Amino acid sequence: MNTLIQKVTNNIIERSKPYREVYLGRIADADSRGVHRSALGCSNLAHGFAACSAGDKALLSEDVVPNIAIVSAYNDMLSAHQPFEAFPKIIKQALHEAGATGQFAGGVPAMCDGVTQSQPGMELSLFSRDVIAQATAIALSHNMFDGALYLGVCDKIVPGLMIGALTFGHLPAVFVPGGPMPSGISNEVKVKVRQDFAQGKVDEKTLLLSESGSYHSPGTCTFYGTANSNQMMMEIMGLHLPGSSFVIANTPLRDELTKAASKQVLSLIDTETSSMGIGKMLDEKSFVNAIIGLLTTGGSSNHTLHLVAMARAAGIVINWQDFHDLSQVIPLLTKLYPNGSADVNHFHNAGGMPVVIDQLLENGLIHDDVKTIMGEGLSAYTSMPKLKGDAGTEKLKWKKKKYKEENKNIVSTVAEPFSHHGGLTILDGNIGRSVIKTSALKPEHHLIEAPAEVFNSQEALQEAYQRGELNKDFVAVVRYQGPKSNGMPELHGLLPALGSLQDEGFKIAIITDGRMSGASGKVASAIHMTPEASEGGVIAEIEQGDMIRLDVENSTVELLVHPTELAKRKIVPPDLSGNRFAMGRELFSSLRGNVSGAEEGASIFNLPGEESA
């Protein structure tokens, strides 16, 4: 094992001890109570299986077979989640074949950031993660279940399901992916049309045709943003079946994997002694592996929030320094859009996660002494699933995958990586701490020194661009976009304009206390700036024309203004009342008031043992 990885892991274990001890004590207590249906009174139990078949009622009343909860984020507006419509029937049939029962325990909300980008609804997006966690807890609160299957894909949904699952950490858990849609038009074409539209070169009809050619059918969007980073992490943490994350939706192989996942959860249940609950299965090493997976694949910067929040639910404290330190030794092994031209279907066909995991294992760059739904270690996760046999009687098999030279433009080796540095860097300076995604950033954009153009919304920047005021070198400061200000929306709407300016030869960078899309990275962007403007962060003191220096190589972002000058400045917050209502935002005021800072996961939940009364 690489010594720096071990050092980071040991640091996490040490700082997590008091919270992890409380957490493990709680799930051990829950586990010791045994199968929970036995604790229910007759009236409770009758309510619990009133809608079941006569056969299932008999099995559940005897309390002798496992009963599995299905928690789903299905809706038919999200392309990624529409395939889940058919999953409960497939799952219940597979469980019956294995001598078990299953119940649809509950649905959780699932919003699409692609629909809400640059819209008021985006201000609910980050908070939806914690709402999903709460909804998951409600689904599992009936005490009817011996294990759970979690059906989710997209940005906040998998992290929310994970937080909820870890709260019920005594229950065995398997996460079941829906799979990507087939590849549409290339990402390069899509981005070009977006920039042409921002410059007024094409009309809305042309733009819509382009977008519809990219997002065109059921299944997950195929670029490597937050949704597909979720799937990568569930696989590298051992919560998916091996090689299953990027099998295309609505295919025979996808259905067989769903059946197999349904039965796999049963292998984690031990009714005689103690089951392998997700809270015991995942430990500090599992979360370090997730960070490593994120870095080596150039995954979404959103996970510098979500991974922190997920880990805290299990009493594990990770911070941005852990990401930064690991990034020094984790090589970039994939080239996926926005870090390259390939999408996740190309990646899967090139060997996908099994090849990446195999490379990491061979070079001591990932913890192998972890527990997964397949048992001990990650060796099972170096194989890819396929169907073998005649049509209608195919059997699910796994085959070991190794690196192939012919795929070197998509998946590389540790010996010859696309970069010797992982895809994320933490920037420190007198403005605060922030995250920058470097995997898609060209070297000539690693150092930007330019005057500030200050905005309190992305709409204000877009308007300045349309007026022709931004044809110059500048650092866009987009503030009052943090979790306490307006829920920390993604500011993806900035990229067509700023990307086109960068293409014209101007030196452009962004500093914001908001988020950027998981598919972004072309423009140097110091994001998640903390402290945020609403908390009195220095970002609130920046004035028009102040010189700012963003230096990726030295991991710094600095406001080049003398401290005595800064001390004279008065912070005048903008009127944010318009962000407090409409599109449901008034219902989230208590979350804005209680949310933690970005480096603590921008969460409303406390660590185990630190819950408020």
SSE layout:
Blueprint (H helix, E strand, L loop, with lengths): L2 H30 L9 H8 L4 H9 L4 E6 L14 H11 L3 E7 L5 H4 L8 H16 L6 E5 L5 H11 L5 E4 L10 H12 L5 H11 L11 H11 L15 H13 L13 H4 L2 H14 L5 H11 L6 H8 L16 H6 L2 H11 L8 E2 L2 E2 L6 E6 L6 E6 L23 E6 L2 E6 L9 E9 L2 H9 L7 E5 L4 H4 L8 H9 L4 E5 L11 E7 L16 E5 L4 E4 L3 H6 L20 H6 L19
Parallel strand pairs: 1-2, 1-3, 3-4, 11-12, 12-13, 13-14
Antiparallel strand pairs: 5-6, 7-8, 9-10, 10-14, 11-15, 15-16
Helix pairs in contact: 4-11, 6-7, 7-14, 8-9, 8-20, 10-13
Structural overview:
This protein has 22 helices and 16 strands. By secondary structure, the protein is of the alpha/beta class. It has 2 domains: 342 residues, no CATH class; 176 residues, IlvD/EDD C-terminal domain-like (Glucose Oxidase, domain 1). The chain has an 8-stranded mixed sheet. Strands 2-1-3-4 form a 4-stranded parallel sheet, sandwiched between helices. Strand 5 and strand 6 form a beta hairpin. Helix 7 runs parallel beside helix 14 and helix 10 packs across helix 13. The longest helix is centred in the first third of the chain and has 30 residues. The protein is globular and about 75 Å long. The mean pLDDT is 93.
- Quickly give the structural class: alpha/beta
Strand-residue proportion = 5-15%
Main pleated-sheet profile: 8 strands, mixed
Give, in spatial order, the strands making up the sheet with the most strands.
9-10-14-13-12-11-15-16
Helix content: 25-40%
Average pLDDT = 93
**Tally of DSSP β-strands:** 16
Query: What is the radius of gyration?
Result: 24 Å
N-end to C-end Cα span = 42 Å
Low-confidence segments, ≥5 residues, pLDDT <50? none
Coarse shape: globular
Question: Number of helix segments?
Answer: 22
Number of domains: 2
Family: Belongs to the IlvD/Edd family.
Keywords: 4Fe-4S, Carbohydrate metabolism, Gluconate utilization, Iron, Iron-sulfur, Lyase, Metal-binding
Domain Dihydroxy-acid/6-phosphogluconate dehydratase C-terminal: 410-602
Pathway: Carbohydrate metabolism; Entner-Doudoroff pathway
